[in-house]
């Protein structure tokens, strides 16, 4: 196909990567079988969601009563007896039950692992090893196996030995994210000017995404070597990678990075400002862009004010506070849309660095949800689930020209795929499953 | 409880001292990075951590503008810590790919590479004649990763986007912070990092596919979409129940209890992820009866508004009478999760993180001893590793031009004179340390 030159890039890119036509193409990971035995952790669930969106077949193994992660839901609201978070990350997975603490269940798990390419688990370190179904034992059954264990303190090292419990909040707290997130302490010792967690579960999402990254790296190595391995993932350590210059700055003698709320120690303005009806992001930190912004707010003389006249002067805390007040004196006269319109009108007349006044509405979730662009791009979509009905939620995000991701269904009830999976992989018939069920093994 | 020898075994299996004796997962994968700031460079950095050979191509002179983002104007040996921490193990070359001869050099490199990562505005590379449509002609196996704020074919494709644009427009900021207070800009460039991680995942899946089929492809990842994807139950709460997710401060409303609490001497994260852990927490708080109370015994009950508030009220009142150490020890003793809020100094001095090389001390060939966060996942057979930190603009020109492009010195000199290739400007952030002797740290 030779379309170069006859079609612009944007149209070509859309034609080649529109999620609406994903189903016509191949899947990147469709030769892989993943066992997700995670419990009480969206870290494991996210990791297997990612692999499943990219084509892997994922078998979710829950205890016969179901994973408690199904119950984690805001205010206890459920849909079809399932928590809202689980409905998001149960996607594309076959759901079976298995009692890993009984010998019969362990034997079945070993057999399943013999078929698998990847095992994901989130138990206390050494728990499955103690049961005889950890990596140390499973690699004897299947040397090609990639075994990912997710835990705040990892699988080795002094704190791993202490029996400390993992959690989403422990990942955030240990990582340094909470320390530098939030409004700076004030004199009143107020409730809100404290180290602050992110609203959604970054401690779990980062851990799951990093786990998928470790697993995929290991799979690529296995393609050439035939060898499996163990992947040890601490969500806390993963987020550390993302704490801007935290470690380097400290080591080099700059100091400990502290929290600054909406201010920024390295560039300013780079902040959220209050408007009549909400907030908008406002950045204009190089000299030329700053001059443009001062024109927009009708204060061109401030570019010569000694507090603001250079990039460096603008990033002292006093200057940032002063500039924040000046910006809000202006912006609170207008709605968010009016502010954005004024910026766009002004920057359309500028070029290069002078046009780098960047803004964007601080959207409340319903505002984000109704933005047509996100629907056109397929990051929001309606999934017709055979059991749970129509669900409008986040889709896979990569737009790929060769092997686009997809969402096939949203979720499955506890044990819904026992018959299909146990029959296909282990040849167990209905009467055998009945016995296993009666014994509490599945 | 684990077998006693489990941790002895894992310590041997993962022994970081042996990292350089083991293979690398992505060895042999060559990545071209045409990126500035954070979103693109972090993508390539994650690949470099796992052994990919990353060639970072910057503009001659000033290079990546991230070089000049420095906390409170702080530079060290003429380089910013904000730049070093996302540019490890990379080869730094400077080529102006907007010039025809520069584009030609890029094509020659692309013909011998596996992955290209760029984060220009959508369509820029195509306009310069070195976009995916042109490069796949010289290398059909190429995986072309295009990072941008809104995507290659979004209606907003021409809008500039920084990290905080994505935090704002995705709804991520609106749900972080306290009720009655402004939405919170997250203390890290979370849209850039999360987008970069998603980009890395797409690249790895595409490499896996290519290794089977020989087929390359283009992958389009947006910052804003990355943050939308990771907002757990936010969207279903709205689409199924018409309820808007608000700012709930430090206390989780979907896992109860899970939150950040003030202690005597700092802040601590505490969570009880199941009913057994909650019973342990109640015991630690000196109120074992609470775990028997039908309002609190089961997670489903604790999630109800008034019960949730009672649980958190109890925890706030208890935690403030405790030290961090007491809470963490109680967590181990009674079986719930407790972790103090750590900062850079805590990490630097943490023996556990040092033992795991999550905090990794290395001797950089140019800058000497540095300490960085090590690779995220620890792989037993192919551990990631830290070799060096970022270098001045064009620092590895000779190495790459000689080894990969076989350019002779006369050609390089001519290209330098014509501004097609080059090295650092005389500017802090771009240039070597003041006392550099002209040789230290160079490769041939």
TrEMBL record, chain A:
One of its GO terms (molecular function) is CoA-transferase activity. Keywords: Transferase. The keyword Transferase applies. SUPFAM superfamilies: CoA-transferase family III (CaiB/BaiF). Gene3D superfamilies: Crotonobetainyl-coa:carnitine coa-transferase, domain 1, formyl-coa transferase, domain 3. The keyword rRNA-binding does not apply. InterPro entries: CoA-transferase_III_domain, CoA-Trfase_fam_III, CoA-Trfase_III_dom3_sf, CoA-Trfase_III_dom_1_sf. Signal peptide: none annotated. It holds the Pfam family CoA_transf_3. This is Crotonobetainyl-CoA:carnitine CoA-transferase CaiB. It comes from Desulfacinum infernum DSM 9756. The lineage of its organism: Bacteria, Pseudomonadati, Thermodesulfobacteriota, Syntrophobacteria, Syntrophobacterales.
TrEMBL record, chain B:
It holds the Pfam family CoA_transf_3. Coiled coil: none annotated. It comes from the Bacteria. Keywords: Membrane, Transferase, Transmembrane, Transmembrane helix. The keyword Transmembrane applies. The keyword Transport does not apply. One of its GO terms (molecular function) is CoA-transferase activity. InterPro entries: CoA-transferase_III_domain, CoA-Trfase_fam_III, CoA-Trfase_III_dom3_sf, CoA-Trfase_III_dom_1_sf. SUPFAM superfamilies: CoA-transferase family III (CaiB/BaiF). The chain crosses the membrane at residues 186-208. This is Crotonobetainyl-CoA:carnitine CoA-transferase CaiB. The lineage of its organism: Bacteria, Pseudomonadati, Thermodesulfobacteriota, Syntrophobacteria, Syntrophobacterales.
